[in-house]
Amino acid sequence: MTEDLRSRALDALTTARARTAILTGCVDDHELTAQHSPLMSPLVWDLAHIGNQEEQWLLRTVGGRTALRPEIDSVYDAFAHPRADRPSLPLLAPAEARGYASDVRGRVLDILNATPLEGGPLTDSAFAFGMIAQHEQQHDETMLITHQLRKGPAALTAPEPPRAGAGELPAEVLVPGGPFTMGTSAEPWALDNERPAHQRAVPAFHLDTVPVTCGAYLSFMADGGYREPRWWAAEGFEQVRRNGIDAPLFWRRESGQWLRRRFGVTEPVPLDEPVLHVSWYEADAYARWAGRRLPTEAEWEKAARHDPVSGRSRRFPWGDEDPTPAHANLGQRHLRPAPAGAYPQGGSPLGIRQLIGDVWEWTSSDFGPYPGFAAFPYREYSEVFFGSSYKVLRGGSFGVDQVACRGTFRNWDLPVRRQIFSGFRTARDAGPDEGIG
Ligand SMILES: [Fe+2]
């Protein structure tokens, strides 16, 4: 078990670093140090920040080693500097940042080999190593967003995702009512906000079988959805009005056709693909227009994990097995969501598809602690974000790696955000005689 976790940690760290190398190796030094959007850090900041977090947690805290570069800690402290200000910091140059991250990694691999994976919450089950691999992958997704915001020709390439699975799917699925186990106390690398496992009552509801597609979203737009205040939360309507928003981010209309820009390529909006780059406000307005609503976070997790036969919550919609390329669109393997209905092998027991991968799915829920929450290993991981400012997203996108994606994983962001790989699906209450459980 211990050796399994050690090799799992080594794999996760190595996979993350290979991806970081692709994201920072496909553009020149000028582009690495440029700020492509005030919403994002220069890529070279993310690169050295990845190394610096790894140095602080694995080299100094777990390994007990002397600090390598303590003087740069403050430059790479995400809480000390908003992203817009980061280009003006005394950043390590690209070659220096690469050398630093690789120097830290070399020492960390020695520490991984030498550390007993027991004896404390940071080292039990190689937690800190898993946490740092997840941290790097989360920054890799952030860097992928920077690539999407970047102007200029394509720098990244990837094969197309699989087409939709065979057969017509029902529009929605009834999820029976009753309690289920939400969160986890068993997943070794689950983060503090996913813990602990607890019982949650969820009344019966209907959930879309697949995420809302661009084609369906175009119907909302064509019906004047962006101009009709009754579909919108007041702040959301004000935000689209003030900013002249009338379509998802990266979309534009040309000669009567909707086009989108995707990683440097302009292409017609694909009607059968899950809609991407919408804010929580847009998702919420669409749902109201459709006579539906966004699912709560508990509804989403029940749909993704609850096995109605065994009554148990599983790690993923398809079971406890780690994701494979046949289950879900993860890890930047493709540079877009797969068409709605793809990945039949990744479906839930009730037949709901694409809950994991493709697009992060907005839920109606604010980001908050589960009963029994304890901040670990630091308050700034989750606790400082709890409250009504942030909405929860679930399920992971094509840009998240499997180490940072599971049925219990929680992401959160501001309801105005749309540069993230966000989409949604809708829900509705079941009738009084439906799905009593
Ligand atoms: Fe970070």
UniProtKB/TrEMBL annotation:
Keywords on record: Iron, Metal-binding, Monooxygenase, Oxidoreductase
Residues where gamma-L-glutamyl-L-cysteine binds: R83, A84, D85, R86, D413, R417
EC number: 1.14.99.50
Entry keyword annotation includes Transferase: no
InterPro entries documented for this protein: CTDL_fold, DinB-like, DinB/YfiT-like, EgtB, EgtB_Actinobacteria, Sulfatase_Mod_Factor_Kinase, SUMF_dom, SUMF_sf
Presence of keyword Heme: no
Cofactor: Fe(2+)
Sample GO molecular function, one term: iron ion binding
Ranges for domain DinB-like: 12-143
Domain Sulfatase-modifying factor enzyme-like: 169-428
Pathway assignment: Amino-acid biosynthesis; ergothioneine biosynthesis
Pfam families: DinB_2, FGE-sulfatase
Substrates-to-products reaction catalysed: gamma-L-glutamyl-L-cysteine + hercynine + O2 = gamma-L-glutamyl-hercynylcysteine S-oxide + H2O
Positions bound to Fe cation: H49, H135, H139
Chain's role: Catalyzes the oxidative sulfurization of hercynine (N-alpha,N-alpha,N-alpha-trimethyl-L-histidine) into hercynyl-gamma-L-glutamyl-L-cysteine sulfoxide, a step in the biosynthesis pathway of ergothioneine.
Protein name: Hercynine oxygenase
Species: Streptomyces jumonjinensis
